[in-house]
């Protein structure tokens, strides 16, 4: 587990000011969700923690050390799964473990165990194109978890999935995270997903993105999605985002 701090972080792409003076401290072991309108720099913040994008000013630190380049202790999972198509699910998961120095047989055994934790125990020998989108995304998530990163960065990890699969994967991630000690930063457009999973929901305002609200979610897990405190928080977050409640959307995504 590691703490992550954004200290007065700003980011410009050419003349476009994307982030302005973002100040945020994420405690070691915390699960933080970032929500906000499209184009406010949420993915850019994750890429900065991953070491893929430097801030224009300010700094991003992990455990007090300035992030300068990618490191295996910080893993990024995208919306589009990034499994290697020429490897089976089992070998995809095992690969990261082998990079870390596990002997091949031990890595493959661990990969089987990880896949079983997300109901993919019977699919280890399948190639990515032979399984569904939800199954691929599950495999991508356990591939990231298997190497036991200190910081897990999730960029709309369930965004491309149908609603039912998304709910199922949210439940699985909640279970996996409770058992694994790591710091998680997750970007999502789904306020309910943020409230179901996170310890804290950070709201970014319109571009140039900055933190406009920071809501703790003081509920133990597993959570009921309809718990009254969550519904109250949801209303507050939607108000922060300027979403009109009268639209009566059953499931609100931004
Ligand atoms: N490498 C880049 N070069 C130029 N512009 C970029 C680059 N990366 C991001 N941007 C711009 O920065 C802005 C913020 O992008 P980013 O993907 O971080 O936003 P976001 O909040 O994650 O958006 P969304 O919610 O739509 O995914 C966008 O206008 C995007 O075009």
TrEMBL record:
Swiss-Prot/TrEMBL keywords: ATP-binding, Nucleotide-binding, Transport
Keyword Cell wall biogenesis/degradation: no
Residue intervals of the ABC transporter domain: 4-231
InterPro entries documented for this protein: AAA+_ATPase, ABC_transporter-like_ATP-bd, ABC_transporter-like_CS, ABC_transporter_ATP-bind, P-loop_NTPase
Domain of life: Bacteria
SUPFAM superfamilies cross-referenced by the UniProt entry: P-loop containing nucleoside triphosphate hydrolases
GO MF terms, alphabetically ordered: ATP binding; ATP hydrolysis activity
UniProt xrefs under Gene3D superfamilies: P-loop containing nucleotide triphosphate hydrolases (3.40.50.300)
PANTHER family tied to this protein: ALIPHATIC SULFONATES IMPORT ATP-BINDING PROTEIN SSUB (PTHR42788:SF13), TAURINE IMPORT ATP-BINDING PROTEIN-RELATED (PTHR42788)
Protein name per its UniProtKB record: ABC-type nitrate/sulfonate/bicarbonate transport system, ATPase component
Source organism: Deinococcus peraridilitoris (strain DSM 19664 / LMG 22246 / CIP 109416 / KR-200)
Organism placement in taxonomy: Bacteria, Thermotogati, Deinococcota, Deinococci, Deinococcales
